[in-house]
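Reviewers of the previous submission asked for a worked example of the structure-prediction workflow described in the proposal, so we include one complete record here. The input consisted solely of the amino acid sequence. No template or homolog information was supplied to the procedure at any stage.
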Amino acid sequence: MTVEKIYWDSACFLSHFHAEVGQVEKCDGVLQRAERGEVLIVTSALTLAEVLWMRGEPRLQKEKAELVQKFFRRSYIRVYNVSRKLAEAAQIIVWDNRIKPKDAIHVATAIHLGADALETFDAKLIGRSGQVGNPLLLIREPQPAAQGRLPLAGSAEHPT
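From that input alone, the workflow returned the following structure tokens.
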């Protein structure tokens, strides 16, 4: 079985944490697939800070710190550091593709890791799908699971 490598930006994690109607179901579908070993979720270390308080979103409270940190330590989530090389690649993405700097870090990291797709709820970023990277990066919303919810212990945690 081939494991799909999916890059999640901060919006996906926030939708899961805040149980955003219309989005959490899609995120949970990916998490279900990850729990079954079908998907590896990758993200930038930038995400660890971004999920605490993104513009226009409610702030995650400090009381949830342990839950959030534990969530990102799950075996099917890999967090990658922002290196100088990635930051410089992000600069080029900003200049050549008019993508915002934080989003460019996510795009550069997804490209560097060879992700099968970058998943987000950012419509502007989704509009750049197939326009950046070599090979061109697929940017889409999280894809729901093909089958129903599996009753796995600890899979319904929402640190809100």
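The longest strand covers residues 39-44. We consider this example representative of the routine output the project will generate in years two and three.
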